[in-house]
Amino acid sequence: MYSKSHAGSCLHCACPAFVALCLILLGAVAVLTVLYISHDLKLKERLELQDQLSKNQTEHGQHDLSRNSADSRRNCFQRELSCPKKWEYHGGKCYFFSENRLNWTRSRDHCISIGGHLAIKSIEEQEFMGRLVQSKMMTDNDRFWIGLTDEQVETQWLWVDNTPLDEMIRHWLEKEPDNWTVILINPTGEDCASMGKGYPTDSDNWHDENCATLHKSVCESISPNNG
Ligand SMILES: [Ca+2]
Ligand SMILES: [Ca+2]
Q1: Total-model pTM
Q2: Which ligand approaches the C-alpha of residue 154 most closely?
Q3: Alpha-carbon distance 80 to 1, whole Å?
Q4: Whose C-alpha in 12, 27, 97, 226 is 20 to 30 A from the C-alpha of 42?
């Protein structure tokens, strides 16, 4: 009797506690559900934003690519219009890097025969010609004749158009010009200027050399479309 009554009392006490526990669990489930839905929505928004950004970047990249391609085609077209075939256009002039290895005098004459003259360098041309000479050099000893000589009066350097060398645009390699003289080989010294590799890597250095040396050369002319 005592036992049955005690059990009924315990059952009676446990019922509200059980209900409370259920309510707490339901509340927890509800909170977790809301948090999950909220997180899911934010994740979806973030993914949509990333998709949109990615799409915009792709469209932007394609636009840049298309514009660069158009610029490149236009530059090539202008270059083709501005210079004869195999000549390089730069700053209103055309340059031809001749692979023929000739002495300075024959190089000068060859440039004239193809409508130009041996290159006369200005400050603006220095970087451009240095870069191109570097790209054309097959060996470290490859050099290119330019239109500069002191053949008439020693140490008075003149361009092929008879203008004197401007002190501001001298690019002699260190210790050049040295007018290096060897009896029986070049008894008159070195009177012609070449452009080529210095030490350790520069390719826009000038050297005075024996004019009889065989070198490649750089010819120059005004672009036919300039002005
Ligand atoms: Ca000399
Ligand atoms: Ca020299």
Answers
A1: 0.64
A2: 1
A3: 116
A4: 27
What is the distance in A from the centroid of ligand 2 to the CA of 125? 22
Count of alpha carbons within 13 angstroms of residue 160, beta-carbon side:
22
Cα of 209 vs centre of ligand 1, distance in Å, is 8
* Residue 164 Cα to ligand 2 middle (Å): 19
Q: Are 133 and 196 in contact (CB under 8 A)?
A: yes
Judge whether 202 and 79 are in contact, CB under 8 Å. no
Q: Which ligand is nearest to the CA of 155?
A: 1
- Neighbour tally for 64: CB within 10 Å: 10
Q: Report domain extents, the chain.
A: 1-82, 87-222
Q: How far apart are CA 155 and CA 135, in angstroms?
A: 30
Fold of 87-222: Mannose-Binding Protein A; Chain A (3.10.100)
- Tens-digit pLDDT profile for residues 126-185: 788 888 888 888 887 889 999 999 999 999 999 999 999 988 888 898 889 999 999 888
